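[job 4471] stage=fold_predict status=RUNNING
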Amino acid sequence: MPNPNFKGGNNNNKGGGGGVKPPFNKDFNRNRFRGPAQDDDANRINEQIRGVQEVRLVGENIETGIYPFKKALEMAKEQNLDLVEISAKATPPVCKIIDYSKFKYEQKKKQKELKAKTHQTVVKEIRFGPNIDEHDFEFKLKHAHEFLKEGNKIKAYVQFVGRTIVFKERGEVILLRFAQALEEVGKADQLPKLEGKRMTLMLSPKVTTKK
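[job 4471] inference complete, writing structure tokens
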């Protein structure tokens, strides 16, 4: 006998009606109306500067001082430029009236130059034996030339094993010849130095000046 209280659908669906109600996706609903992601490192500009009553204007073609935010924004628009927040944590925030695209370009250029200046020097080691043959010497010389051109330092050394220490003069000749062959791209930091059973020579890349 049919149940007179049955209204159709799934008994687990409290809302009634046919079909199963999809589960609530809180992440979908939370992000549904969110605007595009903004770069955390980006400076706020123009109307993006919110919750500010006044700003301190600095820069060229303006009189440095504290202005109402709306006034500062009007001044930027009159010059067809942008009001850029330089220091948000200052009280009041510090702003400049500049071309934002040009400002970002200059920032990236400075960061690139700073990165080039703070390039970490890498020391490449090249080992010789006191009885190295000509082919092996030329092979190591070629690699050393590339290392120096890339801006790396070179630690060249002759390793004396067992009784080969008696050939220390030969090791010195090898290192001096090595340094002379690389004089166009590198310079010796010091003369070959014997420490225990190893004779070492340090080479640094030459700094070339553009004409």
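[job 4471] summary: The longest strand covers residues 198-205.
[job 4471] exit 0
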